[in-house]
Amino acid sequence: MKESANATAANAEVVANASTPLLEATGISKSYRRGVRRKPLRVLVDANLALRSGEIVGLVGENGSGKSTFMKILVGSLNRDGGVLVRNGAFGYCPQEPILYERLKCDEHFDLFGRAYGLDGGFIDRSRDEIYSLLGFEAYRDVRVAELSGGTRAKLNLALALLPDPDILLLDEPYAGFDWDTYLRFWELAVDRRNAGSSVLIISHFVADEERFDRIVHLKDGRTEL
């Protein structure tokens, strides 16, 4: 009976851990001050989001609704005015505007970002080869960013978010500029990440394939709605 009780307690702990959000944002608010009189412009009023293991979540809103502001707060690159943010896992971030260095080659970006993530050389090499294959741009590994098309830049931008094999993937308009084949590859990759237990957040101004998401959260007037 004691062994059974211990097993039951262990199982309960596993369930509890599984239900704990990898990322949870509660009551997030943000205002900007613009103009001569510095009148505050309220962008986020009461934005809430919980991301759990093994799900793909869409965050949808019109242009100017505050989606990118919310994303920057989630990744820690922008301070919030109010609310609580808790992250319980490592994250990878794919910004809407790629942060790339024109003079560096694709391979050099993997090395640079890998060191910033604190990854060892062997892990960087294995992850880089796998990502090149997944996104289909192996031929560009020795090409400088200045010579890449917009679509290939978008692939590299996404690849750098995938590099550390994160628990949480935060993707801001990740497939803008992708051709159809790459778009399908992206969704295969997203499903693989979900099946491996990661949480994937995709920000977009519209959702074309709603059935691909487990949940969709709408951002309107600075507030999130299911």
Q: What's the SSE blueprint?
A:
Layout: H1 2-19, E1 23-34, E2 39-51, E3 55-60, H2 67-75, E4 82-87, E5 91-94, H3 106-117, H4 121-135, H5 150-162, E6 168-172, H6 180-195, E7 199-204, E8 215-220, E9 223-225
Q: Based on DSSP secondary structure assignment, what is the total number of beta strands?
A: 9
What is the CATH C level class of the largest domain, in words? Alpha Beta
The total number of structural domains is: 2
Q: What number is the mean pLDDT?
A: 88
CA-atom Rg in angstroms: 19 Å
CATH architecture of the largest domain: 3-Layer(aba) Sandwich
The CATH fourth-level homologous superfamily of the largest domain: P-loop containing nucleotide triphosphate hydrolases
Major sheet: arrangement of strands: 5-6-7-3-8-9
Low-confidence runs? 1-17
Structural class: alpha/beta
In one word, what is the shape?
A: globular
Helix segment tally: 6
The profile of the biggest β sheet is: 6 strands, mixed
Binned strand content: 25-35%
Instruction: Determine the CATH topology of the largest domain.
Output: Rossmann fold
Distance between the termini: 44 Å
Task: Give the assembly state of these chains.
Answer: single chain
The percent of residues in helical segments reads: 25-40%
Secondary-structure element string: HEEEHEEHHHEHEEE
